[in-house]
Amino acid sequence: MEVLDVKLAKSSVFTLMDRTNELVQAVHRGTTQSCLFVGVIRHLIDFCDTFRFCLVVAVPAKQGINELKYPLKLNQGIVTDYKLVSSQTGIDKNSASGAMHNLARLHSTKEITGEWMDAFLAQSKAFVKERNWCKYEQPIMLCLAMTEEVGELCGVLKFLNDSDEEVSCCVYGELVAEICDIFIYFCRLSDLCGFFEDIKKEAVR
User: Among residues 132, 129, 69, 143, which one has the least CA distance to residue 99?
Assistant: First the structure.
């Protein structure tokens, strides 16, 4: 079991939904501003600080899992549903959340640096390019993908009671994994929209 203030987690997720929706609407209207991106990154970092896991540890781990979930040979120019090929990759929702939980429990205190942000973004963009997914790298599509991940984050919490103070290791791992996916899509979106340097400046403390 893992200690988690479920009521606080739900409140934080609702705030993230509000900020994400505001950003998505601005992208859709073509009225994006730096402050919208900064607001989202600030909340993502606060979320991680509140629930005691480190993006510098968790995000590369989730990127590694994504590499396994979407192998090059099965994902050239198309996106294959990872659940349909889990027998080949060995990656399903339970194994992914278990791996994320084990890493998250390290409670690393590594700080985000500008160099780490640059390296992470470069790796994330290479992941897309290697699979010939560049046609999907459009602001509105990344907005939809990020919104989908926020919805999956809500799904992790929806059946938990507000009074719960502990959750299973699997639930905690899923929570960490979904935040990482939101962060990954969000950073690529900020780069496409020309605001990556703004969020990097906010993330580096």
Answer: 69
